[in-house]
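Supplementary notes (optional reading)

For those who missed the lab, this is the record we used. Protein: NADPH:quinone reductase. Length: 374 residues.
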Amino acid sequence: MAKRIQFSQTGGPDVLEYADMTAEEPKAGEVRVRNHAVGLNFIDIYFRTGLYPAPGLPSGLGTEGAGIVDAVGEGVTHLKEGDRVAYAQGPLGAYAELYVLPAEKAVKLPDAIEFETAAACMLKGLTVQYLLRQTYRLPKGETILFHAAAGGVGSIACQWAKALGVKLIGTVSSPEKAELAIKNGAWATIDYTKENVVERVRELTKGDMVPVVYDSVGKDTWETSLDCLQKRGLMVSFGNASGPVENVNIGILNQKGALYVTRPSLNGYADTRKRLETMSNELFEMLESGKIKVDIAQRYPLEKAGEAQEALASRKTTGSTVLVPSMQQDTQATQDAGRSQDVQAPAEEAPAAQDAGTSQDHASKDSQDQDPRA
């Protein structure tokens, strides 16, 4: 019998259960996917803890993954059994060996892109696509500030910004994370545990500050982000790894320079099949060209989803994490022979809150809340 992760009450990682599941048949307009890999994001933790309410309990978890279509519902014409697909906007329940979702939310995956790569970057990569290419369309030579530059979203953002000719200043919490961000293409980094972020941005920009700040951290960085902006600059709040921004006096935007604020989400941009395909194709082109490389720094068996979430929440991870269903583990073990460095456990020391950039928090509800987080 197929397996899935579910929870019957909100709480810590211990509420997650590895349970039998019925192989549900897809209804009209749906497809069933046999998952080969599942993405891990901060929004999954938000649902588990109750920050975001699940539609009902017990509930599945997860909205991102990749695999092969093994059943097609009535009326679906653009996908067929055997197609390789990836998705990032489905209903809760992707932490499973079999997953049913609306066919319009799944896109064909090019043969050149591995399942794990897609599962690790669909939500994060599409988030970066709308942030850098739509929310604020960055011209070549622009300088920006991006919080949590060593996280899952941040790592992709560093690479994408470099490919666009954009100077990305990234905040990090340690020298090791600074090194990772620079390796991925960041123009400069700021260790917020030791440096004054606003003063360093002023120094790096020779007093000009930045026209846009991308912030997935939330309440801990809200005012800092505003203070780094030029007059009439744009604050893009796309996650809340440290908690939501509350009790904001909108007048502060005028006081700090007639600023703009937006709270985008993946669902707000990929709101039609055509837009989803356009965004996905741009992401796939970046992957196939090698301009973006996905760092899958942690892999966990599906049954250890709680352990994986605990590592993410305690800031013990870098890059991306994937869950591998048990039916795929033997295959994966063979593929991973000779590259054991990719399956190391996360580092023991936990950095501070800002590097939860997977906040990827942005999936069905707030894309980084993937929308982030991650």
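If you only remember one thing from this example: Residues 3-120+294-347 form a domain with the Quinone Oxidoreductase; Chain A, domain 1 fold (CATH 3.90.180.10).
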